[in-house]
Design a protein that fits this description.
Layout (H helix, E strand, L loop, with lengths): L2 H14 L2 H39 L23 E2 L5 E2 L1
Antiparallel strand pairs: 1-2
Length: 90
Amino acid sequence: MDITEKIKTFLTKLQGLSENKKIIILWAVVVVIGLPMGFFWVKGAIKNLSKIGESIGSVKLPEINTSDMPELPSLDILQNVTLSNGELIK
């Protein structure tokens, strides 16, 4: 029996199975194919992200001189405010 006859026999057996068994076989095939693909995808993504991290690490950002900037006023606008119940916010 050659390979084409074996394949035809296998497909005929598959066609004779119930829908539930066909779905189980389909998902088993998807998992068996998907796991190695996912493994290599994650491995490649980690490699590419590390390359991006290396290139970002080598970027030299300009320094901004802030010594001549005026001092900003305090934004604490609720300091020493008394609520209607007499409680003081500090």
